[in-house]
Amino acid sequence: MVQSSILLALIGLVTYISARPSPEARAAASFEGIATFNDYSSQLETQGSTVCGGNSIPALGNGTFGAAAGDLSPLLSAGFCDGSQNTTMPNYDMSLCTQNNGQAPDSNRYAGPACKHAKCSPATCYKIENIGPVGEVKGQVLGSTKVQIIDGCPAGSAWNYCKSEIDLAQRCMSPTTEALDIDFNAYTTLYPGKKYSSGNPENNANLQIRITPTGC
């Protein structure tokens, strides 16, 4: 009986090990998140560069677009930025929120936090699949592209925390959401038939996405 129990335990252990994904497979596992979009050409004109000095106009090449990783995202991140907030005791200076009915800071008074350049090296890329607009039932893949992390999307930025009318997950402020702020040039690739309106970003649907690590 003892020998049978040991044999069964060994068989179970071998079965568990053989069925368990390899480290490579686990590293390449997909997870879901939310994509918002940013006009990086405008950012480069006003700020000079992204935090990694990257330029995504119109793409990094080979169909790869630049993206900023939410600095509170559990699985993907460009690292904490100067000005990142402690999620348990955040200290947001709401007095900066003076424009657009309190939904944006005054750009003459506020430049925003900066992220650490070293966090974008080595290059990190993801395959992004659009599985439906935010607020709709997730379904089939509508479009896909590849992004490279070239920036950070800081929760501690007034450009994010002033947007009190938008839920946390769609402004890089949810510690349970994988958030990517993607170059708006990728929008049509992810959402065929839809054109991104950079002049009226509120009219563009943010997207539910499947994120898979891939080579750059």
What does it look like?
This protein has 216 residues and is α/β, with parallel strands linked by helices. Helix content is 18%, strand content 23%. A 6-stranded mixed barrel has the order 1-5-2-4-3-6. The longest helix is centred in the first third of the chain and has 18 residues, at 2-19. The protein is globular and about 40 Å long. The termini are far apart.
Shape by Cα distribution:
globular
| Beta-strand content bin | 15-25%
N- to C-terminal separation?
55 Å
What is the ordering of alpha helices and beta strands?
HHEHEEEHEHE
Count of helical stretches: 5
Q: Any idea what the radius of gyration is?
A: 20 Å
Which features characterize this protein?
single chain; 216 residues; alpha/beta; 6-stranded mixed β-barrel; 5 helices; disordered N terminus
Q: Helix and strand layout, with pairings?
A:
Blueprint: H1 2-19, H2 23-27, E1 31-38, H3 40-47, E2 64-70, E3 125-133, E4 143-153, H4 158-161, E5 178-183, H5 187-190, E6 207-214
